[in-house]
Design brief:
mainly beta, Jelly Rolls, 3 helices, 12 strands
Length: 221
């Protein structure tokens, strides 16, 4: 954000102007697993839309293209020299549902939550949604408090190797959840890898249908 001079106000404006029915969504794709000086301007590994993967939108593909080239680069995960056929490209989609079914704030695309995050589920996400949380060893034990509509919904104790799940009703009016993670850590500062992000716990949300949606509550696992 400092490098590109992006402000929190601009991010908030982006969330207020999410795509709606009839809009087009342009995705920049790429497969170049290299360390870039400015990662934000070059997709190093992006196969498809995160919004589509999370079921935020129903997307109709309109056009796509890729430009392939051989490449020699230092792999961003293994830090070894790689020789591979790489590409950069694009995918263009048309949005067909009225608005976003799910909108995250404070969550990274790979599922990590920072100290404070929130998610808004629309009424057509599904009658119920299942939230799954887990913590890695470097942040275990941990605790996550989940609030809904200004009331404490869950106070969850997490330990390494165990997932905790609970269900949330979303039918009719939708749902807005706020997550507060007790402990966070920066992997680079712990000597684990070069990840500079402040990480708390891993998360995922899935819509429930049929027999699963009939279950009331949800139990920790």
């Amino acid at each position: 954000m400092r490098l590109l001079r992006i402000t929190h106000e601009q991010l908030a404006a982006n969330r207020r102007s999410l795509p709606r029915e009839g809009d087009y969504l342009l995705l920049m794709t790429g497969n170049k697993l290299a360390t870039w000086f400015v990662r934000g301007v070059t997709p190093y590994y992006s196969e498809d839309s995160i919004l589509g993967r999370d079921r935020a939108y129903d997307l109709i593909p309109v056009a796509e293209g890729r430009a392939f080239a051989p490449g020699a680069f230092m792999n961003v995960w293994t830090y070894r020299l790689n020789l591979a056929r790489t590409y950069v490209g694009y995918k263009l989609y048309k949005v067909t549902n009225r608005s976003a079914r799910i909108v995250w704030t404070g969550r990274y695309p790979d599922g990590w939550l920072g100290p404070v995050s929130s998610v808004r589920l629309s009424s057509d996400y599904g009658e119920r949604a299942r939230v799954t949380l887990s913590t890695p060893g470097f942040n275990s034990p941990n605790r996550v408090r989940v609030w809904k509509d200004g009331k404490l919904l869950r106070d969850l104790a997490l330990t390494e190797g165990h997932e905790v799940q609970f269900d949330v009703a979303t039918g009719g009016t939708g749902a807005a959840l706020n997550f507060f993670v007790e402990r966070t850590a920066v992997p680079r500062e712990l000597g684990l890898n070069r990840d500079k992000r402040e990480l708390g716990v891993l998360s995922r949300i899935e819509p429930l249908k049929g027999a699963d949606a009939a279950q009331q509550g949800g139990t920790p696992k």
